Amino acid sequence: MLGKKFFVSDCEGPITVNDNAFEMAGHFIEDGEKFFQILSHYDDILVDEIKRPGYNAGSTLKLILPFLKAYGATNLNMMEFSSRNVLLIPGARATLGLLQFIMPSYIVSTSYEHYIRALCDLTNFSFNRCYCTQLDLDNHPLSDEDRNKLKEFRLSILSNPEFDNLERIFCEEIPGMEIGSLLTEVKPVGGEAKKEAVLDIMAQKDYQACDLMYVGDSITDVEPLQYARDNGGIAVSFNGNEFALDNASLAVISDNTTITSILADLFNRYDRDMVLEFASSFKKDPEKAVQDHPVNPQLAFKLAETNTRLELITPDNLEELKEDSCKFRKEVRGESIGGLG
């Protein structure tokens, strides 16, 4: 039976191991993983340091697009690549199945729609309850001349990854090309756009902010995590980096999503206070916390087989959590993906 509470999660990190755009860059573009990392760092600077007005976290996903096009990416082969490579966090299929049954549940992801469709096909999660970056790459023509220019820009960025060089290429050179339309027309769902997606869900269904549980892990989740935390909801960092932890109320460090199921179930059946009380007890004695709180017995059994840490985030433990969560994040998702903003 559906309750008034609602659940919203990022995809990559809390549900899947992948960074789909990073992986596609590595697949299609020569030295693509290194190239993507440079663009991701540039994106982080624009969001976290310069704070460029109107620029959202996660815009690496539009910056990389002209280069994916130049190296042969199409709607079809992006979909095929995504379908072959979805890698779930252990427990995620069961978590998504449970959450769809017990409460209104949504995915709000910066990922391209090709990847989110592949995830939904794999897990039977409803694509109609997903917000993601919409993209029709085939609708953007690319001349041979511009293709060669983009390949030259790639070499320039790899040899000179300084901020001023990327500014010149992305703010002066590419906007003057026909393919530059990708930079203006594609709207990655990250940062403030994720918060807007949450607000859209609330407006459509008449939900309240205090009834929101949001799970995120990166710089693209800062605004919705902050919104949930500051408005009486539950804000969970799942194997999050420093950006997520700075804006969440709970830290989960785990190799399995069963703890997400437990927190959502407790929140749905009871309230925020029950979740916070459980988290506080869990840090002291996980086994006793499960015994002393109304945790679903099947979920309790599954949790015992996982490597899970759950803590309330406080000023006293924040730095330790950042160090431990970032380290574990890299163990679960790999050094390269785990190190991205």
Automatic annotation (TrEMBL):
This is Haloacid dehalogenase-like hydrolase.
